[in-house]
Prior knowledge:
Blueprint: E1 4-10, E2 14-20, H1 24-36, E3 40-51, H2 57-65, H3 79-83, E4 93-101, E5 106-109, E6 114-115, E7 128-132, E8 137-147, E9 158-170, H4 176-185, E10 190-193, E11 196-199, H5 207-217, E12 221-236, H6 242-291
Antiparallel strand pairs: 1-2, 2-12, 3-8, 4-6, 4-8, 5-7, 9-12, 10-11
Helix pairs in contact: 1-6, 4-5
Amino acid sequence: MPIEVRILERSDRYLKFVVSGLTPPLINAFRRVLIADVPVLAIDEVVILDNTSVMFDEVLAHRLAMIPLKTDLKKLPKIEECEEGIVDPSQCTVKLELQVEAKEPMVVYSRDLKPEDPDFGPVYEDIPIVKLAKGQRIILEAYARLGRAREHVKWQACLAAYYYYPQVTVVDPSNRKCYELCKEICPEAIDWKDDKLSIVDVEKCTFNRWKTCEQVCEGALKVDWKENTYVFWIESFGNMPMRDLVEEAFRIFRKKFEDFLETLEIEITKYKLASEKEQVSEEAQQVETRGE
């Protein structure tokens, strides 16, 4: 079955689409790559030069680490090169500075965190970090490193999930009670016309909500799922454009398969060599036995 994709909604930070032709293990593997393997920058080391605020250094460092940072992957090495030490670690790191002194009571925001390269600044400027009283100050250097969410959630690039594509059959179209109950659950998906219940758009309601309708309708609706067809959605935290996010996920997904095939080929070669060696050993033993 060929793979088909139909986009339902798309923006720079959100993507929803229908995909068919994939088995559940494959679609779930892609979901896990999105949420755990796509790399982004996150503050991993903080050098506190001065902190007279009421907040402990460790708490301040943690708050900084959870601020999403813009990540232009075209300006950074591949995550595999960073993890395997192929490139200099400094190429996988971005420096940011925070220097604030309160002349009056104030709130320090993420916009006060200044990166060396403006392409790697905070995604959102109005994230509060700490309150300062008059005369208090914070001076620090922060180093953001390229990483993956499987190491720590601060490196998570997005949320991703899917559900089965629903197939809804109206068994009893004259059941007004079913319509009234299901209308509260899926208001945009059903309608009542000519004294009959009709499905307006099955995609306006999730599979789970349709199953709830099936339960409350007590036989008036039958809900099933379309085999190997899913509604998939991705919500980015804004670190990178959605297109870059999906492209990087596919690159990593493909590399995982390539690495698996390479490992499998090596293991098969080892097995063949071991079998040949064992066969040669047995033949030599047989020759020696006949000689005796």
